[in-house]
Structures are given as structure tokens and as C-alpha cells.
Hints:
The structure holds three protein chains of three kinds.
Chain A: H1 2-25, H2 29-55, E1 59-62, E2 73-76, H3 78-101, H4 108-111, H5 113-126, H6 130-148, H7 155-183, H8 191-196, H9 202-219, H10 227-234, H11 237-262, H12 272-290, H13 296-323, H14 327-362, H15 373-376, H16 378-391, H17 398-411, H18 419-451, H19 458-461, H20 469-486, H21 488-503, E3 515-516, E4 523-524, H22 526-547, E5 562-564, H23 589-592, H24 594-604, E6 608-612, E7 623-627, H25 631-637, H26 639-653, H27 659-682
Antiparallel strand pairs in A: 1-2, 3-4, 6-7
Helix pairs in contact in A: 1-2, 1-5, 2-3, 2-5, 3-5, 3-11, 3-14, 3-20, 3-21, 5-6, 5-11, 6-7, 6-11, 7-9, 7-10, 9-11, 10-11, 10-13, 11-13, 11-14, 12-13, 12-18, 13-14, 13-17, 13-18, 14-16, 14-17, 14-20, 14-21, 16-18, 16-20, 17-18, 17-20
Chain B: H1 6-27, H2 31-56, H3 60-87, H4 99-120, H5 126-148, H6 152-172, H7 178-206
Chain C: H1 2-35, H2 45-54, E1 59-61, H3 66-85, H4 101-121, H5 125-156, H6 161-170, H7 177-193, H8 212-215, H9 221-246, H10 258-285, H11 294-318
Helix pairs in contact in C: 1-2, 1-9, 1-10, 2-9, 3-4, 3-9, 4-5, 5-6, 5-7, 5-11, 6-9, 7-9, 7-11, 9-10
Amino acid sequence: MPAVLTALALLVGALVVLGVAAWPLSRSVLGARVVHGGVALAGLLLAAGGLAGLLGGVSSLTLPFGPPWGLARLALDPLSAWFLLPVGLSAACASLFAFGGVHGPVAPRLLVPWPLFLAGMALTILAADGFTLLLGFEAMSLASWALVAHDDAQAANRRAARIYLGFAGFGGLSLILALGVLAGGAGDVAFAVLRDAPPEGWRAAAVLALVIAGAGSKAGIAPLHVWLPLAHPAAPSHVSAVMSGAMTKVALYVLARFVFDLMGPAQPFWLGAPLIALGAASAVIGALRANLEDDTKTLLACSTIENVGLIAIGLGLAMAFRGADLPALAALASGASLLHALNHAVFKTLLFLAAGEVLHGAATRAIDRLGGLIHRMPVTAWAALVGVGAAAALPPLSGFASEWLLLQALLAAWRVGDLPFQIGVAAATALTALAAALAAAAMVRFWGLVFLGRPRTPRAAGAQEAGGAARWALLVPAGLTVAFGLLPGVLLDLAEPALRLMAGAGAPRAGVLSVGAAEGGARYWPVLVALLLAAAVGAALWFVRRRAPGGVARFGAPGHVMRGPAWDCGFIAAPAHLPFGDPASQPSAAGFGQPLRRMLGTSLLAAREAVTMPPPGATGAARLDAGFHDPALVALEGPLPRAREALATQAERLRDLSIRQCLGLTFGAVVLMLALLAVLGGR
Amino acid sequence: MSFGQLGYDVAHLLGGGVLLLSFVLLYQRRIGAVINAFAMQGALLALAAAWAAHAQGAPALYVTAVLAMAAKGVLIPLALHGIVRRLDLHRTVETALGIGPSLVAGVALVALSILVVLPATEGVRALARENLALALSVVLLGMLMMISRRNAISQVIGLLSLENGLILAAIGVAGMPLVVELSTAALVLMIAVVAGVFAFQIRERFDTLDTGSLEEHRGERR
Amino acid sequence: MALVWGIIAQALHIALILAAAPLLTGVVRWLKARMMGRRGADPLQPTRDLLKLLRKTPVLAENASAVSRAAPYIAVGAAVAGAALVPSFARGMVFAPLSDLILVAGLLALGRVAMALAGMDVGTPFGGLGAAREMSFAALAEPALVVAALTLAILAGTTNLDAIAAAFRDGGLGLRVSLGLALVAMVAVAIAENARIPVDNPSTHLELTMVHEAMILEASGRHLALWEYAAMLRLTLWLALLSAVFLPFGQAPAGAAPHVWVVGLAAWVAKMGALALALAGFESAIAKMRVFRVPEFLGAALLLGLLGAIYLFVSTGLT
Lengths: 683, 222, 319
């Protein structure tokens, strides 16, 4: 359907125009609302375009302009159409949230990049040649960098923005190199041309490595994940929601586009192994860090690393299955990946927006300053609980459906038949389950500490909930999370053409109400499970009512329950000047993470604990110092900067060169290029 | 032979049990429990040898079984318990490498031995191949135990369980002459005796069984 | 006709499980008491306790939210749903296509999360402590279960419990090291999930090392009854799971006539009794371990499960 693609291209153009227009519009409340409303609408339209693209066929479009050596090309095929869904839905919800949060003029540096960010993501997905893809990718990177760097008053934010920019540059460079290797001697980077000459042998391995470096650094695949927990808290909440929910998916789309489409189907199965290994590492590191962080948004960013890792495992498995000529299993694995990408985009957007709402209502992101918010912010709390349940992979919510599929794919991976691969996949299965259970612990920690218990500060006790658009921005993704959880079969049917493109076969047919591992294999029926759960809970309620003397009084009526002071094992109540009890007697963020810090943190994250006791006789308090280091960040800030320093010193010396020497350098470069051309051309 | 046949199943299960007890040795912290696990490993090994004697129709292996049961299952554990009692050792094993990491390393070693043995023994009977993989794993785990424990007694047990692995390999291969096994067993018994004497000596001189304390007395440091 | 029998078998199974749960706990307690030289309470005592507690109005803390009230129902619902899926005396029940091992693990996780959140609701130190430990231990128990499931799934070709039970009963799988290792892993997970000795002590309160009881300290009345019942159902579920997978004999095959069910029922009761006896004996013989030794215990279970899968690859590669 070329009309859909044309409309989407026009939408990207409209977003760019909106970005430019945001400069003057930012002066007024109305203007800011127009921008956010426009982006929300654009997000919805993108998702609708994706839907239309999945239902329709492949279409392509050549724009009447482009780089000097050709015209820019766009295309809409099932793979790109599928990835428009998470991007559109995430951006729509986030913009709706931002729309509700506009109460005065918005700084232009916060408003202008926002439509451009979405335009960049859409362009990356719609691109049908390497140049357009890179253009979109870089626009996305730069716009999000501007949003991360918006609050440059704090040193931490400046550091985050600096590291983020470094990673964005590294990622872009890697992708350019990947395209270069893929294109080989031919200068044409149109996808249609690249597809005709799939790389083999070392070139395929090199392309894979470069794409993992380029797209993986943007998606947050270990060890290139360190920017995520730094950049997400620095950005405004709706931006972090889209960065986590949508931007990582765009990066994964680029990965899938290269690996499944441009590199062709005839690749050996072991090319999937690095993705599985790195994905498993990301999943475990991310989930473990989420259990140790004490900032809501950092915690959620770490959980994003975990989920990106799970999606990467699915993509790697799909590659391996396809290489081993098991198309049905490849479809299962890629179906798990695609479904999880969509589910994660929705529930992570929801969670980040809830964290934003908490930040707005209680004025802090530190878990140790929150608590008891379910009483003050009930809608936020219950909406967030849906997202938490999905992120913790609880049936019948959306996260469980996709992780079930992923586990089924992992459990079938022994069929590839190569012993080292089988052993590695068995370990990856254990790590995936470990990551899923760690994520559940992290989500309980997040929701329980923020929304349950007693307020830890007066500010948290006086938190206020926003209404209006921001509320809907939470309820819509919560509803989608439930719906996607109940109907994964419909989504997989929708993804069918995309799966055919990636795996060469459709997912195992299991009907609308269920998803299946294989023909005749295990199945998961979310609707029936939900009904079974509801029936069991209903029966429990009915039985309890029957047993209670005179029946249980209606919910909320007097006599339904009795209220009294907390039993707390008979602990004495706090004095009157502590109206919410002694804050020190509640589990803290670090305290809740302590078992896992000791169990896994010491070996994986160099976690440490040190107790400093006051000298005998002194009345001072004892002090517990606990912390951890992400080894990847330590490496990044240790040897790498030193190497850079050394390089910079060398480069500085170039400035002292005479003109003759400068010209000599240029000449040398030209000669080198010519020599390279001669060597490559002679081949 | 393959799964579902009794001969294969029992041999497979006994070999697996020996390997499992190697992991129990790595997992235990208390010295008494380590010695008991070692005794059980010896007993299982004896059963495996007896089963192999029955299955292969090689009565010489019954001698191996009896020897293993007597020495590994009864005498050496009793002697070790006696040493622990007489020296009044700390009952906790001090580990150089934590329990968790040593278990992870153990599984990695098993995977490694499988990856080494299977391609190298192409075309041999399935049972022999599997037995060889099990035996190599037990040997490697014994070595791991020797390097990951500080206590001299646990190191001796590591050595003895390593030797269990060798016997496991020997009984899996039909037609191995008895004299090889006997001489191996005698050798290991000698080593055990020497190590026991050694442990007493260390204890007398340094008042500990931590072999780390020997480090200071090495010639190079002087 | 098979559908009708399936529905009847399913209804019987659910009724059986619901009634057996408190009885099983009572039997285990009674056996333990006898082994320790006490007379022990009547095995029906837990049932009576539950019925008594159900008649009592719960007392909630002043700052308790709706989570405290909803969570026990969710926990019981998840446990009932999970227990309904694990085959007991007959296969081919009407929920058989649903009875997936991973789904059962997910339902157990749902109950666990409900309990952890209820523990954190009032903001007492014990509740948070118990929740943190429970979730952390589960982080190692769940992969151990999944790795054991990997072994079962390779042997049976699916994670469907009904099909696994059928494959283990009818297929000549033989005695395998892998199965033994998977059994060890699953038993360790079962011990940890049910808060039994040596991981946790089910019969103490107010001990600094406790996990499970710490989370429901604030619960009382019918809420406490529901929590206790959920725990009993979980124990029944795990024992039924172990007997369905590792002791598959006696089970009535799918579509069998009701008189075969009687045999299956007798076999099931015998198997559960044997498992209860083993549990009681194990708990009487062993001391509770320090709480920070639990990760080593579960980590060892995980690694042994992994080892089982690795050996399975070897033997499938050999034949």
C-alpha cells in the first residue's frame, strides 16, 4: 500500500516542521500543548501506519531528494511495520503525559528536540537505504542527547550527557563501518542492492560484530549498557519513557534489519551465539543492578537493559535456528522477540510515566524518600502495579506471554545439535530464568518501597496526584498491557508476515486464544488462565463469605475489617513527633537489596559492605557503607580515557606543525587513499 | 546397549552418583560431612565396580570392588575421622575459593571434560564414552577440590577422590589388567599415609592445618 | 464422552486437592511429632484451625492499604489454579492442555509476589525483611526449576505436565543420571518454595532467620486462614508435581474408565503419603541452615540441574 508509506513519510516531514515550529510555540502554554498534542497524534498515526503495513503488503517509495549520489529511499515491509507499533504507542502515551504536565511555558531546548526525536526514530524504521537509515539514527541520537542534556546545572547530568554522546558517536561510527563492510566495493547502500550480495565468512562475522557494537550500544546490550542508567534519570520522565520504550526498540530493529534481512538467510548457526551470550549477560547484569539501585528511574533503566537482553537472546536464537535449518523454531524465537519488544515498550513506558508522576507528586526520585504513596496516589499506584506485574512476568499479563515463548524457544534450542552450543544454551536458559526472577524481585522492591509502607519523608506524605491527561497516559498503557497479555495470539498472527521475513516460516499456529511452542507442543492460553484465576479467587471470596458469621460485611462497610495499630511483633509505637512511625524501622532501598547484593552482587558487580563502629564508649552511630561498581563503567572510565588522553596528546602535537607539514599530511592521506583504492580495485 | 536396558542404566546411574558426590564434596563446609561424602563416594565406586564385574563377566573386578569398599568406604574415612578427632580440628573447612564459585567452576570443568572426551572417542561404545567423560570430570573435580581448599585434610580428600575418578575410568574399560588398578590403589594409599603423617607434622610445627602457613617457609622467600 | 469424563476427573481432582491440602500438612506435622517422640496433634487439626480462623474478623493495621486485603485472595487463587493443573490420579483431565510447567512456575511467582507485597504493605521491618529474602531466594530457585524443566522437556518433548507424566509413565526412558540430577534440583526448589527445613522453619514465629512467616505477621482472621491455606496448597502442589513426574506409576491414563481411577487414587494417596513421610524424616534429621547459606544450597541445585541437562545432551548425542 504505497499510500500508507506516503502518508508516513509526510508524517515524518510534519514532525520535522513541528520541531522547527516548536521554537516560537514554546513561549506559551498553548503552544507547548500544541507541540505535545501533535506528537501524541503523530505517535498514534505511526502505530496505525504500522498496523496498516502489517495487514497490507510491502511498499517502497523513492523520495524526490536525497544525498548527492542518489535519491533517498523509503520502504514499509512487515518488519518495519511491526516496529512502528512500539514506537508509536510509546511516543503517544509519553506525549499525552507531557501534554498533561504543561502548566507554563516550556524551555525551547526541551520542546524543539521532542518532535525531531520521534521523526528520527520513524525515519530509521522507514529507511530503505543505508544513508537514510544513518540519517534517522543520528537524528534520533542527537535529539535525545539534547533532551538528556537539558538540565546542565547538575554535574551528574553533564556527565550523563557526555557519556551518552560518546556512546551515540561510537554507535553511529560502528554502523557506518558495518554498512561499509556490507556494501564492499560497490558504492550503493540501497537495501535492495545490499540484499543481493549477502556477506560470507569473515565479512558476515565482521558485519555482525559491527552491528552489535553500533545498534547494541544504542539498545543497551552489555557491555555497552553503561550509558542507560546514567542518561535515563537525567532526561525528563516522558523522554526517558520513550528512550527506554521506543528508542531501544529502534536500535533492535536496526539489528534485526541487518542480521535477518540484509545479511541474507544463508548464515551459519553459530553467528547467533554472540547475541545469545551478550543478551544473557545484559539480562542478568541489568536485573541485578535493578535490585541495587536506589533511584526509581535508574532502577527502571536497569530493568530495560534486562529486557533488551531478553529480546537479544530471542534474536540470537532465531539466527541460530535459521542457520540450523529449523524455520519453525526460528519463527518461535523471533516471535518471542517481537512480542517482547512490543510488550516491553508498553509496560516500560507505563512504569517510567508512573515514576514521572511520582517525581511530580512527591518531588523526588530517591526510593528512600518515598513510601506509602498508594494512599495519596491510588490511580498511579494501581496502574504502575499492572506494569510491575508485566515486568515481573506474572501471568496473565503481557510480560509473561512473551517470556513464556522465549523460554520455550530456549528449551527447544538443544535441537540445533552441536554440543558446545547446547551447553551454552543450557547455561543461557538458566541465566534467562535467573534474570526473570531477579526482575520480579526488582519490581517488588520498586513498587513495594515506593507505594507501600509508610511515607519516609513529609514530602512523600503530602504527595498529590495529577488528573486529566497524565492520568490517561497511565491508564491507556496499563489497559494495553492487560490486553496484550490476554491476546498474544492475535499479536503473533499480526506479526506473521514479519516472522516470515525473519525466519522463513510463520509462528506455530495455535489459534487466537493461545500461543504454542510447536505443532502439538506446549501451549499457553492466557484467557483461560485469567478465567481460572478469576474463578479461583471468586470461589475463595464466596467460601469466606459463607463461613464468616453472618456473612462478611460489604467491602468498605464497618465491620468488614477491624483497624488497629500495626502489630509489628509488639514493637513499641513511635513517639508523637514521628507521625508516620520511625522511618528507620522500615526497610530501606539498600536494605531490601541486601540479600541479593550479598548473594550475587559481590561476584558480579564488585559490591561491598563495610560497617564502621564508633570507638568503644563513644555515643556516635555505627555506619554501614554499601555500594557496587558496574565493571563496564569502571573499564570505560579507567583505561579507555587514559588511552584517549594519550591519543589527544598526540593529536595536540599536530597543531604545532608547519604549513608544509600540514600539506604533507593531506598529501599523504590522498596517496594512502589511492593506494587503498588500487589494492581493493585490483582484487 | 542404550537407555532402557538395565545393564546400561545401572552403570550410568552409579557413575553419575560418583560424580554427584564429587559435587557434594565441593559443596560441604564441615570436615566431618566432607569425610562422610567421601566414604559414600567410595562405596558407590565399589558398587560400580561390582556391577561392572557382573556385567562384563570379569571376576577380577570383584577384587577391585572389595578393595575399594574396604579402603575407600571404611578404612580411610575412619582414619580421617580419627585424625580430625585427635587433632581437634576446626570443623569448618576454610575455602580459598567460595562455595558458589567453586561449584560454577565444577560445572564448567564437567562441560569441558565432555567436550574433550566425546570427540576424542568417536566410534567407541556409548557406555565407555560416557564413563570416560564421567571419570575425567571426577578427576578434574578432585583437582579443583585440592586447589580450592586450604585445609590439608580436605586436600588429601581431593586427591583421594581424584583417584576414585581414575578407578572409575579403569572399570569402564573392559580388559584392564588388575595389576594396574592394584598398583594405583597401593600408590594412593601410600600417598594418603604420607599425607596423614605430613598433616600431623604441619600441625605440630605450625599449630594449624592451613597449608597457607607453609608459604612463609619456602626457600625462595628467605 | 471423553470430554465429560475429563470434566468429572478435573472436578474430582480439584476437590481432592482442596481437601487434601490441610490434611497433608496435618499428616506431615503428626509424622514429625511422632519421629521426635511427641504424640502430635490430630492430622485434622490444621483443617479445624482454618475453619476457626475463617470465622474471625481480621484486624488490619491503620495504614494498611487494599493490598493487604486483596493479596491473600490472589495468593489462594494462584495456588488453587496451579494445583488444579498438576495431574494427580488421572491424566487427560479437561485442563490438561493448560497444564504447563512454566505456567505453574508463573502462577507460583504470582502468589509469591502477592505475599511479598502484603508483607511490605504496613511498612514493618519484619515484613520487608521477609519479602526481600523471599524474592532473593526465588531468584535462584526459579532458574533451578527451569533448568530441571529443560531436562524434562528434552525427554518428553514438551513442557506440558500431562504429556510429561504420560511420557515418563509409558516411554522407556530408563534410569538416567540426568533425571536424578533434575530430581535433586526440583526437590531443593520444593524445599525452598515451601519454606521447609533446612531453608526456613515452618513452625516458628519471630526468629531472625525466618522468611515466609515474617511476611504474614500482620495478617489475622480470615486473611491469615487464606495465607495458611495458600501455603498448604503450595506444599500439596509440589508433592503432587514430584509424584506426577518422578513417580508416574499407577496413574490412570487419559480416557480411562472410572474404575481405573480408583487404582490411580490409591496410588496417589500412597505416593503422597510416602513423600510426606520422607519430608517428615528429612526435616527431623536435619538442622536449619544459616540464612546466608541458602543461596549456596539453591545455587548448588541450579548447577546440578544444569549438569543434568548437559549429561542429557551427551546421551542424546551418543544414541
